[in-house]
């Protein structure tokens, strides 16, 4: 591995007010996380959990969450083109040609992953996330099917330094223009939050423009001291063009080009390949504590997604209405040597999807090719016990029963063809043990992961119903360490894991770029993940500094995978970098200026099961500058400021592919990311 380990990305923010978004005022020891039901300090959680908060978001452009998430160990977020995201936790995007699969996502306690197993993460504005917890590894014992993990996100809530109004205007290279506005009024127990967002960009490549409008409203009310209710309503309208994958020769000759015409298939531009995605979500979350030891929660919600997708191959229209509920009961039982926290709950979802596929005539709907009605149902029942004896030990055990079925009715043939997925019910246990020693905690855990095929895998873009696809499953074993060492100066979060996945679901692509899926025997996935921060015990108020570092080692490989006459056993699993490094340095000077230095390195990535092609390694640097232009104090005590910021990404001007099309026919693997680019903006608050 050839690592150019130096830090050159610099960001400066000048302000007369206390700086809250650079060097963290709240250290990671005391950050509260939801984790596995029980809200606890991060330092005491016996699981691999990463946090992306305001400190991480503000190191980068407000136009994307991607670089902050990619700075976390064990996590990789990809962007095939603006608006087209993939998210991998320990390689879970192997089965995701686009979007997020094999990962459960919850926003403000509301389930966002639909009953078909898909998560439209791109419907959210980047500013919608104040904190995001990434649970790495199987979380099925509490959050349902998914061998990759879970995402738990929250938005901004009132605090001691609440900013009631904020508006940001951003512009940049490749036609980037973005506006964000937020109104936040109330207290921690009772508030309203309204967010508005608009983003558009022409894109680095041909046929890669995007536009997103987003609006959300959240209301929290403490009806009584025992009863609280939260309401969430959001709407997102997203449109993004899909330029398609390039061959290596095309990528090297002109990485900006969209996929050209070839054989019977038109170019991406001639096909007007685009995804139009409208999403609506509404839900109510209630918390009732009739006694100090008892906690009841109930969530009821509904969502509606409508997708229109002209592609090189066809023209697809999907409507995906669904609804669901989640309930939880928690009870704390005092025992002679500590406490015993018990929790149990259930989650249920059902959808009524309609998928119609037509011919594509120059971006216009042509004759009907297939029409399918899908009814996905997802049910989960779980229980968990957490014993905390007085001797600094913690033992936790949980188990869930997951039942997932998808019924498909092909209405375009007579008589109608019917298919129901089977064998998708599974028990998923989890057990962990932790021991606190002075200022750090060591833990060990074992958990079963289980992930059935999603609706988009059973009925992929080829429109051929996959009747043979089975659920993937396996056991994950893990040892971890989290806390402070070296006289409290170093925060260290490290773990080693081994996950043997059986019947792993992997993707294929045909000549048109359409995806389909197959089971890949078994995989051997072990790795090391590490994150650290260094905080000097004594610092001059006029000069504060804090370096940070994260490292991921994922040498994943197929253990037993034979397809027809090809034996891929022992090959590296494609789409996963063996090693990644993210590092940086946060500085604060005279309590008025801050400096951020950031760096990322990604190892070469194999692009197919045969390991005959791979994307080259790359390194990324960025820069950000900012200053307060004007501030005011009114006689009524109201304060405000106008600030300016500007920056650049990919300062080394690297030519790299950020979202590869794995196992693409004809070697069309490459989706070029933007070269060196710039942004600037103004914020009023």
Average pLDDT for all residues? 86
CATH homologous superfamily heading: TonB-dependent receptor, beta-barrel domain
Question: How many domains comprise the coordinates?
Answer: 1
- Helix amount: under 10%
CATH-defined architecture = Beta Barrel
Indicate the radius of gyration in whole angstroms: 25 Å
* Largest sheet report: 26 strands, mixed
The chain-level structural class is: mainly beta
CATH topology call: Maltoporin, Chain A
Cα distance spanning the termini: 45 Å
| Beta strand count | 43
Principal-axes geometry comes out as globular
Q: What does this protein look like?
A:
With 685 residues, the chain is mainly β. It has a single domain, classed as Beta Barrel (Maltoporin, Chain A). The chain has five helices and 43 strands. The protein has a 26-stranded mixed sheet that branches. The protein has a five-stranded mixed sheet with strand order 4-11-12-8-9. Strand 19 and strand 20 form a beta hairpin. The N terminus is likely disordered.
Search tags:
disordered N terminus, 56% strand, globular, mainly beta, Maltoporin, Chain A, 26-stranded mixed sheet, 685 residues, five-stranded mixed sheet
